[in-house]
């Protein structure tokens, strides 16, 4: 599928109508309504696209397994002819998979069902489906075949299961947004990364301006206990991790956001550095070393998948936003690390010492798999439904495997492609998905406005379910999504070319289409728990505990009304800080609020509790100071169910 | 006869299996194993549970000599002190402080999640979890914790049960839900919860001034146990209920359905039907003022009092302490007939004021008001 050809229509429309229709289109866009309903309704869902997210090769190299996130399948291909052997239906939104050590089982995590599917690789049939934690994102079996370790993104833990029965033995605390796992070659250790930074406790009241902190969680595979948490300072968003065959080198793909400084410029990594965390005996240093993948004038945006060549000569990194595979020369990288002391994560000239080449692939490349001999590298291009096969001797795409699916690009699909690409920002530094990881949020507080250090710091909000909750921005000053995604984004973020109007319309349609993921705090039967019921009564109460009426504007249910928990009004709840230009804020929606700590506009409340235990001394953010601690707990239990 | 012999041998084997707890196996000098049951049958214990105490203070690595709690975690020993949480591993003490994320410098309770290996520390300023060397802390402001003064912690399955100065709490580690237990939803008259002992079937809270509360995990029902003599220090109805309302420590032996309870005015043993109480006047308990009790099983327990460390083997009482008169190491044995015999020893716990006890194989670790003691079991 040639993207430019597919979008000839868009460009044509732009060319033909650009001058004449600016006013009309502006009106259309600014209404925030269904801007392209007549041409392609938003309901033209993208469900039929396969959206390959991860790839695996069978131990004998004969089969290529492709995890298709949007069609909810594992597609099994002949790795030589690429003929389809079987498409296996999975649960909702599968996110990760791995083979057993023997290769006789394929384990798949179904992230929206909170289950793990077990596929018999002989019969290619699902032989078991087991419950795991909230939003399982990847899985690995230990070397003995005794236990499975499943990283659960929402519950932020590792479920440890009996590999034969699926019975959960325990849960191990991992980093927030635990997502990716790697087993050391000797089978003794499991390494876990996480995509959201930790919630750092308050010490001075300025923690909303602290750099993010992440970790690599290290598990003793035999004892199934956490034995170390390797700190990653200033890192938020750590994805796949790989270890060399000899176990002496480990690498993880990660983001290094620059959230503390005003977004006054983008160049030279002004907003992000995309890097590799390098560790292990080969590195020879006590702490892991962060090395940038970016170059001086172009970026390795949204690094995700990593693979180390069997001979340890190369590291391959998919960069979803830049639509490339970055190739790193390992001996040169190690020489560089050994020759330099201190930190050089901000030095974008460093990569010239070890980045060999950047291989263009398809749209939003994600998972990758190397053949045993290291000669073929398969890359899942999630947003054009292809798998690139790279010849690692030439570092070129030797062939592109097109997966079955729609032949045309729908509006939503194009909007999603626009959302993930980094091509629109200056020097290709970032895309929407750089901050809205997997179309959600990043758990970071950003200093977005170039109006002074530390002014108007805002917490990044989740995008799911934001349709029809305008106005947008914390201050409610953007009337609709096209304004937010268009002029505002272009001016403050991209500092580069504008979207053409139809691309902007497609992007807005995609953002409006983002459905909320299942709420894990709601019971399956839809009923509230006793604590949630009690909390709901507090949420809706009109009289306080002293029998005094609560003014309508001071009830939880007034500002947080309706199915999404927002009345869309702009209000002052007394949370303005000295560094804020205004205390007037739009009532944020409550959808899946349990996921999105920290809270308040600047992320100063590190937990839901702190909204009321610390930041509501005058009852301006609802009448709450008459509540006992258990009543506040009930209110929070109810809010988590929204 | 053959059957009888077989049963006897099985009994001996079963009792020997208790060697994970100190003072559980007697090993006579001649090398022949003798069961505890056989030992108790005689008037006096034939082999004494003797310990050589090695004491730790600030002089050899502890951050503070006021040790409120001790926890055995395999080869590691955790000590909750007035000035930080210390962990002893490979003969080296490492100290965690508030700079590391500890909720407060005074660590007053400790618990091990045997499943995950995480250690939980109750402090005067919140609850801390130590996992993989990293600490995160829960307070009454940033979480659903009922109160920052965390007197005791007990973990069963995915639930962390917490005793605080303002009621009990349960944190479910899977859902992150905090459930609070206080005078509004339990028969708790006072909310100063000193102790908790949780198992999958029952959870017991020891309440300072409100007796003991039992929570049945299956029925979610609460039962309260009180001193039949009311809130007085008189004991008229001994063995008819809990010895006193001011409960400082509870230790539930789920297997035998036996609860051990310590109070400031004596100690109690409850088997689900009958109470048996211990006072200094009619037992070998060195003091009625008891800070801590830890059961070995339904029959045996260790007691931490203000006048020394005591072990009750079901018949005999053994007391370990620096002498109350001259401070010299002292060990006494009180047999079933009430005869007290001194035993010559050269070491004793660091202090008479005992605040915490834990077992490490046949050894014992003791938190005291003036140091941490390691009781090494002697042959």
Task: Explain what you see.
The complex is a heterodimer of chains A (642) and B (379). Chain A has 642 residues and is α+β, with helices and mostly antiparallel strands. Chain A has eleven helices and 32 strands. In chain A, a hairpin with a 6-residue loop joins strand 17 (238-243) and strand 18. Chain A starts with a helix and ends with a helix. In chain B, the strands form seven sheets. In chain B, strands 22-23-24-25-26-27 form a six-stranded antiparallel beta sheet, with no helix packed on it. A four-stranded antiparallel beta sheet of chain B has the order 1-30-29-28, with no helix packed on it. Chain B is mainly beta and 379 residues long. Chain B has one domain (50-377): YVTN repeat-like/Quinoprotein amine dehydrogenase (Methylamine Dehydrogenase, Chain H), CATH 2.130.10.10. Chain B has two helices and 30 strands. The chains are: A alpha+beta (642), B mainly beta (379).
């Amino acid at each position: 599928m040639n993207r430019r050809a597919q979008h000839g229509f868009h460009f044509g429309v732009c060319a033909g109508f650009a001058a004449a229709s600016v006013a009309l289109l502006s009106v259309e866009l600014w209404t925030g309504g269904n801007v392209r309903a007549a041409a392609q309704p938003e309901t033209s869902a993208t469900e039929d696209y396969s959206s390959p997210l991860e790839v695996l090769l069978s131990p004998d190299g004969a089969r290529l397994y492709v995890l298709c996130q949007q069609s909810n399948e594992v597609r099994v291909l002949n790795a030589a002819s690429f003929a389809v052997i079987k498409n296996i239906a999975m649960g909702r939104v599968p996110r990760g998979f791995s083979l057993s050590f023997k290769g006789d089982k394929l384990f798949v995590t179904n992230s929206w069902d909170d289950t793990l599917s077990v596929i018999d690789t002989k019969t290619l049939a699902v032989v078991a489906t087991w419950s795991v934690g909230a939003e399982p994102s990847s899985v690995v079996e230990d070397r003995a075949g005794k236990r499975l370790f499943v990283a659960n993104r929402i519950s932020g833990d590792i479920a440890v299961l009996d590999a034969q029965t699926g019975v959960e033995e325990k849960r191990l605390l991992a980093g927030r947004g635990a997502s990716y796992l790697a087993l050391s070659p000797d089978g003794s250790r499991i390494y876990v990364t996480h995509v959201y930074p930790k919630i750092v406790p308050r010490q001075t009241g300025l923690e909303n301006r602290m750099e993010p902190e992440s970790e690599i969680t290290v598990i003793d595979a035999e004892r199934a206990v956490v034995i170390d948490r390797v700190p990653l300072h200033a890192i938020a968003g750590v994805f796949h991790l790989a270890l060399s065959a000899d176990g002496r080198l480990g690498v993880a793909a990660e983001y290094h956001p620059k959230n503390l400084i005003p977004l006054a410029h983008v160049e030279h990594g002004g907003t992000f550095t995309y890097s590799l965390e390098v560790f292990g005996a080969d590195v020879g240093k006590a702490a892991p070393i962060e090395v940038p993948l970016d170059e001086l004038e172009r970026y390795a945006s949204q690094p995700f998948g990593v693979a180390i060549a069997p001979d340890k000569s190369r590291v391959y990194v998919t960069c979803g936003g830049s639509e490339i595979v970055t190739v790193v020369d390992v001996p040169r990288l190690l020489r560089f690390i050994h020759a330099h002391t201190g930190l050089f994560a901000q030095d974008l000239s460093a990569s010239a010492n070890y980045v060999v080449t950047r291989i263009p692939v398809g749209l939003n490349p994600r998972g990758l798999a190397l053949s045993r001999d290291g000669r073929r590298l398969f890359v899942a291009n999630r947003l054009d439904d292809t798998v690139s096969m790279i010849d690692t001797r030439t570092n070129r795409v030797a062939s592109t495997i097109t997966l079955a699916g729609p032949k045309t690009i729908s509006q939503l699909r194009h909007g999603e492609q626009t959302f993930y690409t980094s091509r629109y920002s200056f020097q290709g530094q970032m895309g929407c998905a750089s901050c809205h990881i997997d179309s959600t949020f990043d758990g970071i507080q950003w200093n977005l406005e170039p109006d002074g250090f530390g002014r108007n710091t805002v917490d990044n909000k989740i995008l799911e379910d934001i349709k029809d909750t305008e106005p947008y921005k914390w201050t409610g000053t953007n009337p609709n999504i096209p304004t937010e995604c268009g002029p505002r984004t272009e001016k403050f973020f991209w500092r580069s070319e504008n979207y053409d109007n139809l691309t902007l319309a497609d992007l807005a349609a995609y953002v409006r289409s983002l459905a909320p993921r299942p709420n894990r705090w709601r019971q399956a039967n839809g009923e509230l728990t006793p604590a949630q019921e009690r909390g709901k009564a507090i949420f809706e109460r009109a009289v306080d505990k002293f029998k005094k009426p609560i003014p309508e504007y001071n009830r939880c249910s007034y500002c947080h009304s309706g199915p999404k928990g927002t009345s869309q009004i702009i209000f002052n709840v007394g949370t303005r800080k000295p560094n804020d230009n205004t205390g007037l804020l739009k009532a944020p929606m409550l959808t899946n609020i349990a996921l999105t700590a920290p809270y308040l506009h600047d992320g100063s409340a590190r937990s839901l509790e702190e909204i009321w235990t610390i930041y509501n001394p005058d009852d301006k953010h609802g009448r709450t100071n008459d509540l006992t601690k258990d009543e506040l707990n009930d209110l929070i239990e109810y809010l988590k169910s929204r | 006869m053959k059957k009888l012999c077989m049963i006897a041998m099985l009994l001996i084997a079963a009792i020997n299996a208790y060697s994970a707890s100190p003072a559980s196996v007697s090993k006579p000098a001649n090398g022949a194993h003798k069961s505890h049951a056989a030992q108790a049958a005689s008037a006096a214990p034939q082999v004494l549970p003797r310990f050589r105490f090695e004491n730790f203070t600030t002089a050899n690595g502890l951050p503070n000599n006021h040790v409120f709690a001790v926890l055995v975690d395999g080869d590691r020993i955790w000590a909750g002190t007035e000035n930080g949480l210390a962990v002893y591993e490979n003969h080296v003490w490492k100290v965690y402080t508030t700079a590391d994320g500890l909720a407060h410098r005074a660590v007053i309770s400790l618990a091990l999640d045997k499943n995950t290996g995480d250690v939980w520390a109750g402090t005067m300023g919140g609850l801390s979890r130590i996992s993989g060397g990293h600490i995160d802390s829960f307070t009454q402001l940033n979480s659903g914790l009922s109160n920052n003064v965390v007197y005791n912690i007990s973990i069963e399955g995915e639930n962390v049960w917490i005793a605080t100065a303002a009621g009990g709490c349960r944190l479910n580690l899977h859902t992150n839900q905090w459930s609070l237990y206080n005078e509004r939803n339990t028969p708790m008259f006072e909310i100063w919860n000193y102790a908790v002992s949780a198992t999958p079937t029952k959870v017991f809270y020891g309440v300072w001034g409100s007796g003991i509360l039992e929570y049945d995990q299956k029925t979610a029902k609460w039962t309260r146990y009180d001193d039949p003599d009311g809130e007085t220090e008189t004991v008229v109805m001994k063995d008819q209920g809990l010895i006193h309302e001011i409960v400082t420590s509870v230790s539930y032996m789920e297997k035998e359905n036996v609860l051990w309870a310590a109070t400031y005015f004596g100690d109690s043993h409850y088997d689900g039907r009958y109470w048996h109480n211990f006072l200094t006047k009619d037992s070998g308990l060195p003091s009625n003022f008891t800070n801590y009790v830890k059961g070995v099983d339904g029959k045996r327990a260790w007691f931490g009092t203000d006048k020394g460390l005591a072990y009750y083997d079901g018949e005999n009482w053994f007391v370990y302490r620096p002498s109350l008169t001259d401070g010299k190491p002292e060990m006494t044995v009180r047999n079933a007939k009430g005869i007290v015999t001194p035993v010559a020893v050269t070491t004793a716990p660091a202090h008479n004021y005992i605040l915490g006890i834990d077992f490490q194989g046949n050894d014992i670790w003791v938190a005291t008001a003036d140091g941490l003691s390691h009781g090494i079991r002697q042959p």
